[in-house]
C-alpha cells in the first residue's frame, strides 16, 4: 500500500511538472533554434568546465561516504566505494520514489556491513546535505531579498531550513535515546493500531538503523564528511553557473549556487521518475530570481525568448546529468567490485537483515581488499 501511494505521488509530480514546463508548438521551434544557435567553439569551454566539475562532484559524493561508514568499523577501499556509490546513484535516478536509496546499503552487505546501519548512514547523509543546501539557499535568498522579491522566496528558505534542522534534532535524539525515539516514531506512524506485530519489527529495524548515526559522536569523521560535502555542493553550484553561461544566460556565481540549492530542495519532495519535469521547473524557478520573472512562463501563455533560452539550459543540464550518472553506474557494474547479481541481491537484502552468524560471501573476484578489510560489528 505504501509503495502504491509513493508511486502515485511520483506519477502525480511527473504530471504536474510536465504540465508546468511542457512547451507548445511555437516554443518547441524556438527551443530547437536555441540549440542550433550554440557555437561549438564558444560553448565547448563551458561544457568541458561543467564536465570537469562533475568529476569533482562525483568523487566527493562517493568518497565522503567513507567517513560515515568508518564509525561503524566498515572500511571499503576507494575503488569499490566509488563503484558501489556509482551504481547507487544510478539506481536513485532510475527508480521512482527514491527506492534507489536502498541499493548502496544493500551492496555493502556482502562486505560485512549491517544493511540497517548502512541505511542509517544514508539518512545522516541526506539530513546533513539538506541542512547544508538549506543554508546555501537561505544565504543566497537573504542577499537578494527586497520589495521586488517574490512572496514565496523567504518562506521557502525558512521552511527548508526548519525542516532539515528539525530532522537533525531528531537524529541527535535518536543517538542519545534510541529506544524512546524509535518507539515515538512508530507510535506517530499509527502502525501499532493497524499492524501491532509489524510495528515491533519496524521498531527493531529503526534501532538497528540508528547505529548508522554514530558518526555524530565521531567529531573527526563528521568534520571530514562536512568538508567533502562543502566541496561537493560548491562544485555542483559552479557547474550550474558554468553551463548557464555556456547557454548565454548572465547568471552570477551566487545565482548558480542558489539555483542548485533550490533544485536540490525541490527534488527532496516526492520525485518524478528520473526527475523529469521536476528538475526543469525548479531550475527555471531558481533562475527567475536572478534573471527576472520572464524566465517563468504560465502554461498556455506566450513565452519570452529568455524563458526558451533558460528552458534549453535546464533540459541540457538534466540530460547531461542523466547521461553522467547512468554512464558512471554502468561503469560500476562492469567493474570487478559490483555485478548485476549484486544489484539484484542488494534490492532484496535492503529489506532483510542478515541472520546472526551467517557467513558472508567473499568480495568479488579482482577486489583489492582482503576478506577481513571490513570489520562488522
How many domains in all? 1
Note the main sheet: none
Rg, nearest Å: 22 Å
**Number of DSSP helical runs:** 16
How do the helices and strands follow one another from N- to C-terminus? HHHHHHHHHHHHHHHH
E-strand count = 0
Low-confidence stretches: 353-377
* SS content category: mainly alpha
Shape: globular
Tell me what portion of residues adopts beta-strand conformation: under 5%
**Considering DSSP H and I runs of 4 or more, what fraction of the residues is helical?**
55-70%
For the terminal residues, how far apart are their CA atoms?
A: 34 Å
Mean pLDDT: 84
Structure description:
The protein is mostly helical and 377 residues long. It has one domain. 69% of the residues lie in helices and 0% in strands. The protein is built from 16 helices and no strands. Helix 7 runs antiparallel to helix 8. It is globular and about 55 Å long.
Amino acid at each position: 500500500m505504501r509503495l502504491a501511494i509513493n508511486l502515485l505521488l511520483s506519477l502525480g509530480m511527473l504530471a504536474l511538472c510536465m504540465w508546468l514546463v511542457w512547451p507548445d508548438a511555437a516554443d518547441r521551434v524556438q527551443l530547437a533554434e536555441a540549440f542550433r544557435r550554440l557555437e561549438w567553439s564558444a560553448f565547448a569551454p563551458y561544457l568541458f568546465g561543467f564536465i570537469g566539475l562533475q568529476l569533482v562532484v562525483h568523487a566527493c559524493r562517493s568518497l565522503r561516504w567513507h567517513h560515515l561508514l568508518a564509525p561503524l568499523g566498515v572500511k571499503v577501499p576507494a575503488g569499490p566505494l566509488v563503484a558501489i556509490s556509482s551504481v547507487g546513484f544510478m539506481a536513485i535516478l532510475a527508480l521512482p520514489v527514491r527506492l534507489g536509496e536502498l541499493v548502496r546499503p544493500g551492496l555493502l552487505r556482502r562486505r560485512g556491513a549491517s544493511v540497517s546501519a548502512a541505511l542509517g548512514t544514508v539518512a545522516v547523509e541526506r539530513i546533513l546535505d539538506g541542512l547544508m543546501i538549506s543554508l546555501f539557499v537561505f544565504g543566497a535568498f537573504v542577499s537578494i531579498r527586497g520589495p521586488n522579491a517574490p512572496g514565496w522566496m523567504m518562506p521557502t528558505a525558512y521552511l527548508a531550513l526548519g525542516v532539515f534542522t528539525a530532522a537533525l534534532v531528531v537524529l541527535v535524539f535518536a543517538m542519545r535515546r534510541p529506544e524512546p525515539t524509535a518507539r515515538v516514531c512508530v507510535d506517530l506512524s499509527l502502525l501499532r493500531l493497524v499492524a501491532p506485530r509489524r510495528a515491533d519489527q519496524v521498531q527493531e529495524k529503526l534501532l538497528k538503523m540508528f547505529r548508522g548515526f554514530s558518526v555524530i559522536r565521531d567529531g573527526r569523521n563528521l568534520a571530514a564528511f562536512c568538508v567533502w560535502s562543502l566541496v561537493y555542493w560548491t562544485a555542483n553550484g559552479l557547474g550550474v553557473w558554468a553551463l548557464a553561461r555556456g547557454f548565454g544566460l548572465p547568471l552570477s556565481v551566487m545565482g548558480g549556487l542558489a539555483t542548485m540549492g533550490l533544485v536540490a530542495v525541490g527534488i527532496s519532495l516526492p520525485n518524478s521518475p528520473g526527475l523529469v519535469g521536476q528538475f526543469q521547473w525548479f531550475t527555471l524557478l531558481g533562475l527567475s530570481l536572478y534573471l527576472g520573472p520572464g524566465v517563468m512562463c504560465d502554461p498556455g501563455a506566450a513565452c519570452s525568448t529568455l524563458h526558451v533560452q533558460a528552458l534549453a539550459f535546464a533540459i541540457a543540464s538534466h540530460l547531461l546529468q542523466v547521461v553522467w550518472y547512468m554512464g558512471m553506474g554502468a561503469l560500476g557494474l562492469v567493474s570487478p567490485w559490483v555485478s548485476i547479481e549484486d544489484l539484484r541481491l542488494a534490492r532484496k537484502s535492503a529489506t532483510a537483515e542478515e541472520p546472526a552468524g551467517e557467513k558472508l560471501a567473499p568480495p568479488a573476484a579482482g577486489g583489492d581488499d582482503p576478506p577481513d578489510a571490513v570489520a562488522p560489528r
